[in-house]
């Protein structure tokens, strides 16, 4: 399968999931500015017209988009990895967390803060409206190791999103000790540590290239 990604973007969650499952993939880096696939110089927009990562091309040639859908696909494809759930009730809880992370945290809170073109008022509004979502996660994680009763693709997504606090100074994890401990614990998990280290190096190289071209 082919995973189209950009370094340290939300697509890193799928890399974590694939590493967790011990499954190989072709990792195709997309330049977030030019939408060019760095591996071969092709136009990523021809794969996904929206130009968004992650995008996954399965071994059957099916192109999947949207983080939650791709993560659920990986969990379903490799059940022995235990990244999904067995019962319908637990599966619904997994969907609940994937949707919550995608809408309330990823799009609602972090996207405006990370967008260099977003006006200050938009960033202020995002903090005022959505920072309480971190309170919600904090309360849920108290006394828990993972979002569900085991490491799942929802955790892969959450640790990827919380990793963005490195670039969002207004969000100081010390205010949420259970979430901070969760993040620090998962950062030492082999699949997460490997993904973060690899993508951080790619991110630094990407920044250097754009500075050189400016």
From TrEMBL:
Domain GST C-terminal: 87-214
Species the sequence originates in: Bradyrhizobium quebecense
Name this protein carries in UniProt: Glutathione S-transferase N-terminal domain-containing protein
Domain GST N-terminal stretches: 1-82
Pfam family, one: GST_C
Record-linked InterPro entries: Glutathione-S-Trfase_C-like, Glutathione-S-Trfase_C_sf, Glutathione_S-Trfase, Glutathione_S-Trfase_N, GST_C, Thioredoxin-like_sf
Annotated SUPFAM superfamilies: GST C-terminal domain-like, Thioredoxin-like
TM region(s), chain numbering: none
CDD domains: GST_C_Beta, GST_N_Beta
Source species taxonomy: Bacteria, Pseudomonadati, Pseudomonadota, Alphaproteobacteria, Hyphomicrobiales
């Amino acid at each position: 399968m082919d995973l189209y990604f950009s370094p340290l973007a939300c697509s890193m969650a799928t890399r974590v999931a694939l590493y967790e499952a011990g499954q190989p993939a072709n990792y195709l880096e997309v330049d977030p500015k030019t939408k060019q696939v760095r591996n071969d110089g092709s136009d990523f927009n021809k794969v996904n017209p929206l130009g968004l990562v992650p995008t996954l091309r399965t071994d059957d040639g099916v192109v999947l988009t949207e983080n939650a859908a791709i993560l659920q696909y990986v969990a379903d494809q490799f059940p022995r990895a235990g990244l999904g759930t067995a019962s319908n009730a637990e599966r619904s809880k997994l969907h609940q967390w994937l949707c919550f992370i995608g809408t309330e945290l990823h799009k609602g809170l972090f996207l405006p803060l990370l967008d260099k073109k977003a006006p200050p008022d938009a960033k202020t509004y995002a903090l005022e409206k959505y920072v309480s979502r971190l309170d919600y996660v904090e309360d849920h994680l108290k006394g828990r190791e993972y979002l569900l009763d085991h490491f799942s693709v929802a955790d892969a997504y959450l640790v990827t999103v919380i990793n963005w606090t490195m670039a969002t100074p207004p969000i100081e994890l010390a205010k949420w000790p259970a979430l901070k401990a969760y993040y620090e614990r998962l950062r030492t998990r082999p699949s997460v540590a490997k993904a973060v280290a690899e993508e951080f190096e790619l991110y630094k190289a990407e920044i250097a290239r754009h500075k050189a071209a400016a």
